[in-house]
Write a structure and sequence with these properties.
Helix 3 packs parallel to helix 7 and helix 5 packs across helix 7. This protein is an alpha/beta fold. Strand 8, helix 11 and strand 9 form a beta-alpha-beta unit. It contains 16 helices and 25 strands. Strands 10-19-20-25-22-23 form a six-stranded antiparallel β-sheet, with no helix packed on it. The chain has a four-stranded parallel β-sheet with strand order 12-11-16-17, with helices on both faces. A three-stranded parallel β-sheet has the order 1-4-6. The mean pLDDT is 92.
Length: 535
């Protein structure tokens, strides 16, 4: 019955010329198929496994299997061989059976929501699989078991470097199993059916807690999607206001970095959600601009209330639609988002700076994750205030990078500058590339010297530190998107390094208007929380 109703909805959307994004669960996390995977698993092959002290925490150290229960307890282990294939068979293949004619046409995207592997608990348990010990030995060349209890016992306290190295190796194997056994099989199914895989992971905004959220190596997981995404629904981002400090964090760049390096066009954000009804149009636009200037160009907005009856107005959702007083603002707002996103999905990004994402540091345990997170946030703030756009790169990408004409080439991108917020746990293979990059004339900066990174655009003016800039090249044209993230007007002089006429895109109409630029320089005033496209 559900499939028949879904097909009717998609048929109708096709007649209206709409696109449909296939959601692969009945909720989240993706992978359990509303407990149908568990129900089909009579042998218990896909149940979550752990290494530790059992359910109550008093049992002797060893491996144990978690039985299926209700709700989240029915979620299978996405690192067990065959679990993802069973999930795809129950969910994706059923959709293909009923609406296959729409796949790749009306249905262009398949969305996964917060999938994860079994989560670790400090001092209690480590995520495990039926073949984990063997996989660890094959991939790392030594036996994990002699170190296992020390790795678990010292998870949240400082330990010697040897145990931290084993812990990093453990999480590396765990994360790679998650990518290989869940992320890539789902993407492969999408490719066979002409659909782009998309979605987001759980807790990507706080990488220092990645060990507990269970999403594997963050940037590598995002690179395993055709349209990598983030989740911005809990006020993880919020402007500074007269009543207090907001929150600015770099995490939208995790997804945009993956797309840029993959050479793909789209980056997604699930936005608003639990921001609540106190969100004003001004703050809604700030949130969207904050993400667009960092590379996001596909938005899943929630939540449009189907009615103003009480059952549809629960929790803390942002309720767009005729039930709110600013409904008349919605149409021009969404036109603005669509127009700007479309322009920011054309051409190719132009970036000179890469920032090291310290995946090993986030995995090392003790106080290292917090150190890595704080250093990364500090570098992000310095680069933002310096009008410098940038991507993130991880240790695997550094190890495999090439050096061409003094630039660090990673996938479809190349960078003249690498910033290392932290580097204690950088593998030797990554250091080898960095030394070669420096030898070829590349610039390597750290937390103290990040302020010397070359800005994306030279801007003169007292409040230029409130402006953010991104740049894209579209053939002979160069597009600049400039956003004022501050709550005060900013008057500055913009200096465009490319020769030629400067054109302004009028946001309300989409028209192009010649700007009064003098030798590539333009005086411009940005109202509070304002943005502008220049071509």
């Amino acid at each position: 019955g559900y499939m028949e109703a879904y097909k009717a909805a998609v048929d109708h959307a096709a007649k209206l010329g709409m696109n449909v994004m296939l959601y692969d669960e009945g909720g989240w996390p993706s992978g359990g198929a509303c407990a149908l995977v568990a129900k089909s698993d009579a042998e218990g092959r896909f149940r979550q496994r752990f290494l530790g002290h059992g359910v109550s925490g008093t049992e002797s150290f060893g491996t144990y299997v978690h039985g299926y229960g209700n709700g989240r307890e029915s979620y299978p282990s996405m690192i067990e061989p065959g679990a993802s294939e069973r999930f795809i068979q129950i969910t994706h293949d059923r959709y293909a059976e009923h609406i296959g004619g729409h796949l790749g046409r009306t249905i262009r995207f398949a969305f996964m929501d917060e999938p994860d592997h079994p989560s670790c608990r400090p001092g209690r348990r480590l995520a495990w699989s039926s073949d984990f010990a063997e996989q660890f030995r094959l991939r790392k060349g030594y036996d994990f078991m002699p170190y296992a209890e020390d790795v678990l016992r010292t998870q949240d306290v400082c330990s010697d470097d040897g145990i931290s190295k084993v812990r990093i190796d453990y999480y590396d194997v765990l994360g790679n199993l998650f990518v290989e056994r869940f992320m890539l099989p789902v993407r492969d199914w999408c490719h066979r059916h002409g659909v782009l895989s998309t979605g987001h992971l759980n807790g990507e905004d706080v990488p220092e807690l990645s060990n507990r959220y269970g999403h594997g190596p963050l940037l590598k997981c995002l690179r395993a999607m055709d349209v990598p995404g983030v989740d911005t629904i809990w006020r993880q981002l919020y402007p500074n206001t007269v009543s207090g400090e907001g929150r600015q964090a770099p995490f939208p760049r995790y997804a945009t970095s993956a797309a840029h390096q993959n050479g793909t066009r789209y980056v997604l954000s699930e936005s608003f959600g639990i921001y609540g009804d106190s969100m004003t149009p001004e703050r809604m636009k700030w949130l969207v601009d904050y993400q667009m200037v960092r590379g996001v160009n596909v938005f899943v907005f929630c939540y449009y209330a189907m009615s103003n009856a009480g059952q549809w107005l629960d929790l803390f959702e942002l309720h767009c639609g005729p039930v709110v007083p600013y409904w008349t603002f919605e149409h021009p707002f969404l036109d603005y988002v669509a127009r700007t996103s479309a322009m920011l999905s054309n051409g190719a990004p132009v970036k000179d700076v890469a920032v090291y994402f310290d995946e090993p540091g986030f995995r090392a345990g003790g106080g290292y994750p917090e150190i890595a997170g704080a250093a990364q946030s500090a570098v992000a703030k310095v680069l933002d205030r310096g009008n410098c756009d940038y991507d993130f790169v991880d240790h695997e990408q550094l190890a495999e990078a090439q050096i061409r004409n003094g630039r660090l080439v990673i996938g479809a991108m190349s960078y003249s500058t690498l910033v290392l917020p932290t580097s204690k746990w950088l593998p030797e293979s990554s250091w080898k590339t960095i030394k070669a990059f420096e030898g070829a004339g590349g610039s390597v900066l750290n937390l103290e010297t990040a302020c010397f990174a070359r800005p994306t655009m030279r801007i003169e003016g007292d409040a230029r530190t409130e402006l953010r800039v991104t740049k894209r090249r579209c053939g002979a044209e160069t597009l600049y998107f400039v956003v004022n993230e501050g709550r005060w007007p900013v008057a500055v002089t913009l200096h465009f390094e490319e020769p030629g006429e400067v054109v302004v895109c009028e946001r309300e109409t989409g028209r192009y208007l010649a700007a009064d630029a003098d030798a590539g320089s333009l005086r411009w005033t940005f109202p509070a929380y304002d943005s502008q496209l220049f071509l």
